Structures are given as C-alpha cells and as structure tokens.
Automatic annotation (TrEMBL):
Keywords per UniProt: Hydrolase, Tryptophan catabolism
Molecular function GO labels: arylformamidase activity
Chain positions of motif HGGXW: 53-57
Subunit text: Homodimer.
HAMAP family tied to this protein: KFase
SUPFAM superfamilies in UniProt: alpha/beta-Hydrolases (SSF53474)
Name used for this protein in its record: Kynurenine formamidase
Amino acid sequence: MPSSNLNLPHLPIHHASQSYTDEPTRSRTLDLWLPRPLEDSDPKKHVWIVYIHGGAWRDPLQTSQTLLPTLKHLSPIALSKIAGIASIDYRLSPYPKHPDEPSKPDDAERNVRHPVHIADVASALNYLGAKWKVGGKDGDSEDDGGEEGGFKWIGIGHSCGATLLCQYVSRIGLHDSDIKIAGPVGLILLEGIYDLSSFLKNHKPPKCSPEIAQIYEDIVVGAFTESKEAWKKASPVSGKFTEEQWKEGRLVYLCYSNEDELVEVEQAVEMRQKLKDDGWSAGKDAGDGRIVERKALHGKHDWIWEDGTQIAKRIDEIVEGIAKHL
Ligand SMILES: N[C@@H](CC(=O)c1ccccc1NC=O)C(=O)O
C-alpha cells in the first residue's frame, strides 16, 4: 500500500518493501519513492533511478535504506526530471563472523553465491519494468526492448552494487532471457569492484596484515567460491560493454574517492580502461553519447552513502546529461 513519508516531503509517494518475486521472501524486496503519481510523469521528460546497495555481497546492515541520505539531498532540478526511484535488496552470501548479526547456515536468504545476487537484481528490474514502466520503449525507436510507453532509467551502485550493475549490462551470470526490459541509459558507479582477482591481490601481505587479507578472501570466496576461474568470469573487466552488448548506454560516471580505505583506486582505473577498449570515449559529455567520465569524490568508503550529498550531486549532473538523449 502507498504510504506517505513525512521525512521526505519532496517524495510524497513511498512504497516500502515491495516483493519482486511471486513467492515473497525477506530480502527479495525493493523500496520505491515517487515525486508525483507515475501517470503524471512523461517518458520524454522523466527518468527512473535504480539504486543497488553495497556491503560486499554479505553485510546485513547495508540495505536498500542506505539510499535515504541521498534522497534527503535531491535537488528540485533533479526531482523535476525523475519519474521515480527504486532501491533494491537482494539475497546475501554467508557472513558467519559478523559481530552483531552472524548468518546461520540454514538461512536461505543469507547463504547464496554468484549468480544469485545478480539474478535477484534482474528479477527486481523485470518487476520494475512490468509494474512501474522502467526500461520500456518510448514509442519512437524500433527495437529498444521492454513495454511501449515506458521510461528510460539510470542505475546507481555503491561498491558491490556497482559491480552488480556492470554485470547486469554485460550479462555476466545472466542469460538474455533473464532480462525483460531495456538497459540503463546511464550508470553512476561509486567505489566499485570491477576485477575480483586484483581486488584480492591488492589485499595480501605485505600490502596489508594477514587478518585484513583474510577478510577480503572471505568476501570473495563467500560470494564467488575459491575458483580463480570463477573470479575472472564474474569480474566486470572480463565483460563486454560494446554498443552491440549495451546499446542504450550513453553515460557512465566512474566515481572514486582517494580517501576510500576499503577499495583501491586500481579498480576504477581498470574499469575505465575496459570501457575505453569497448569503444567508450573518456571525457566530458559532448552530447553524442557513450562517454565515461571520471568523478572525484571525497571521504571514506561508506561515508559516501552515509552522507549522500555527493551522490545527489552526481544525480543532478547525470539527469542533466541524459536529458539530451530522451
Ligand atoms: N561492511 C562489509 C565490508 C564491505 O562492505 C567492504 C569491505 C571491503 C571492500 C569492499 C566492501 N564493500 C563492497 O561492497 C563487511 O562487513 O563485510
């Protein structure tokens, strides 16, 4: 049921914990916020925003609600261009060593591995397409997938949420038939992990203590098994981001803070190179699309979403940049 949200007066319509699967489960839900009823938005003027939270595929304390600080800081200009905002939860990998909320071995919602996380994200997006016109055809391009009369969308992902969005557009862990909507026109990638093998290599002694190295290994093995081959196949830098693969893509903001204490800068450097290799131009948006822009952020890894102001700023910029392509 729709409920009003007193803390976010600029987003008066809020649907909390909507189940995106036929059999409802605890984590396969999403939250929606709309500045106005959907029928009062226009696919030629408004876009959907879809957020995917981080937490290393396993942290139960990082949920769809990590978007709230960003929502508080959305500008009137951004809101005037947004049809709706969704924030997706998905099943997690085991975290038996979590200090406050360890996972139990029989908890089906917290014992999955790749490709279940990305499959959940794809199901959520299919639900958003079917119920909320996300990723639909706008009516005048012949073959852009999705339902007629729909909205273009922009994905935002923090940390492993950025990884998941890259896997989504390059179909890593997915079959074409798993995806029933058009791809995003833009991505805001924040402090993402794009190469799992170098993520581990960069967090081994002597670069860090054996205790820290163990945490990184637990994260990657917990979500992707012990197989080096599996790490390689699941990494966005092994994916394809060509025009043929992701035809809707126009703008990628690769955002990274040099104060990030958890994810190293090499991740964003490698991903930028991958996009360039697949035909993307680096630099400012000249209006003709397929541009990857580097955006410098400040602050620590989680402070980026805890504060939210820099994410809201990037949303302002990307909706402006994407408006040319609607
Ligand atoms: N809070 C997480 C750690 C975490 O999120 C993380 C740690 C290192 C590098 C990246 C991380 N998050 C990415 O989604 C945990 O407790 O596992």
